[in-house]
Design brief:
With about 450 residues, the protein is an all-alpha fold. It has 19 helices and no strands. It has helices spanning about 5-80, 95-105, 105-125, 130-155, 155-160, 170-175, 180-200, 200-220, 230-245, 260-280, 280-285, 300-315, 320-325, 330-350, 355-380, 390-400, 415-430, 430-435, 450-460.
């Protein structure tokens, strides 16, 4: 082969190699670009899928949370009979305003409070009960209670939104504004105190105004500070019977007998509210309330149950006190003893084994006790114009209850008997002990079934 042919063959081979190399580079570049594009697209797809997955998970969690909240609200609505939170703004029609005012006043609680004032009015009345005065007392007490309850909800609207049993109230649920609730509270307070002042007397009106302040200004703020709020609340609940008693007479005086029903209300509230505090202890904890059921005060429930037992036992002799004070006739003492025994048994069962079931039994037992107590007291009441002073009342009581040591029933007229008793004590006990023996009921000498000195005195002997 000649040199020319060899050179031509070399040029052809170099050209072919150049072409192959260029094609390979192009193919490689295309492959690299394609691979990069594919990786970029895959990355975008993966990122999009990741974002979509995250969004879907968040949506699922939101849906689950919303569903749980809706289920909880539905449960609370079914349990409490409260309306659900409206999805659209309320129409503020007449029916809506009436419903909101009904809930702000805690209508059933206000009716219960009014019933205690009505019972106090009946017990403090003469032979005939003034129906006009009774109606004025009930209306005024109802309005005062509505004002106090509304102010309570205004102050507690944030904690109420955190508790299952209170989230559906008008303020947490958004069915009314704080301004509307405040206007309703002020109007109710002015109306209630005004009605009491116009239809009864200054004492009753002052008690009504003072009770609003004590409930909204002392009891409500103290609920988030200390468990002693329950004791302050019991004082608040004991005032309406005093309002009724004061309203029953023109001068508004509160005789010693007025405190019998008030004392019964005070003692009764302890088992009632201790049961309520135990049943709702988780709710109270979520709302930030310092009830006695709070774990920092009582982890087991025994301390709370002990308070219930003590006050239930203290209720047993309240009927005897009512008879002794000349408020009711003798059968009332035995009836209240029979009425209070089941309540003592329920509180002791709660103390033996604190549980929701035992607390619920004590709670519903207390709901039955007080209405029956009030009805029996009104049935056996002694009209004020037929009542006697404390000494004559003690004399009549000793005749009905033979365990009493001093024979007050030895004579029909108490005045000369009291003088004879003073002389007898002076001779038997000496001047010093004779003076100390005049301590009022219930600090009289201990009951003695059979006392020979008293038998001799009853027969007119020294």
């Amino acid at each position: 082969m000649s040199r020319a042919a060899t050179a031509a063959a070399a040029l052809v081979a170099r050209d072919i190699a150049h072409r192959v190399t260029s094609h390979a580079f192009a193919s490689s570049s295309t492959s690299l670009l394609s691979s990069a594009s594919s990786s970029f697209v895959l990355g975008l797809t993966t990122a999009s899928a990741s974002i979509a997955t995250t969004s879907a998970a968040r949506s699922l969690r939101t849906a689950r949370t919303s569903g749980a909240r809706a289920a909880m609200r539905a449960f609370a609505t079914r349990a409490m009979g409260k309306p659900s939170t409206p999805s659209t703004p309320p129409s503020y029609g007449v029916a809506h305003v009436v419903k909101v005012c009904h809930d702000l006043s805690k209508f059933r609680l206000s009716v219960f409070v009014t019933s205690t004032a009505a019972c106090g009015y009946a017990l403090g009345s003469d032979g005939s009960i003034d129906l006009g005065g009774l109606a004025g007392t009930c209306v005024g007490t109802m309005l005062c209670s509505a004002s106090a309850n509304t102010l309570n909800q205004i102050i507690e609207r944030v904690p109420d939104s955190l508790m299952r049993r209170t989230w559906a109230r008008p303020l947490p649920s958004g069915r009314c504004t704080p301004a509307f609730a405040g206007a309703f509270a002020v109007a109710s307070a002015l109306g209630g105190v005004g009605v009491l002042r116009a239809t009864t007397n200054d004492t009753t009106a002052a008690l009504g105004a003072g009770n609003i302040f004590l409930y909204a200004g002392v009891y409500t703020p103290l609920k988030r500070v200390h468990f002693l709020n329950t004791w302050i609340g019991a004082v608040v609940g004991a005032i309406p019977p005093l309002m009724g008693w004061a309203a029953a007479n023109a001068r508004g005086t509160l005789d010693p007998g007025a405190y019998v029903l008030a004392g019964a209300l005070y003692l009764w509230q302890m088992p009632h509210f201790m049961a309520l505090a135990y049943m709702g202890k988780d709710d109270y904890l979520n709302g930030g309330y310092r009830m006695l059921s709070h774990p920092m005060y009582d982890k087991t429930g025994r301390r709370l149950a002990g308070v219930a037992v003590r006050n239930a036992v203290a209720l047993l002799p309240i009927g005897v006190v009512a008879v002794t004070m000349g408020v009711t006739s003798s059968p009332f003492a035995y009836e209240t003893l029979a009425l209070g025994t089941p309540m003592v048994a329920a509180s002791m069962a709660f103390y033996a084994k604190p549980s929701i079931v035992a607390a619920r039994r004590m709670f519903f037992g207390s709901l039955l006790y007080l209405p029956a107590f009030q009805v029996l007291a009104c049935l056996h009441r002694i009209p004020r114009d037929q009542s006697v002073d404390i000494y004559e009342s003690l004399r009549q009581t000793s005749a009905a209850f033979p365990w009493h040591c001093v024979p007050f029933a030895a004579a029909n007229d108490w005045s000369p008997e009291r003088e004879r008793l003073r002389v007898f004590r002076s001779r038997a006990l000496g001047p010093a002990l004779s003076e100390t023996s005049y301590a009022p009921f219930p600090f009289l000498p201990l009951p003695i079934p059979s006392c020979p000195h008293d038998r001799a005195y009853a027969q007119g002997k020294d």
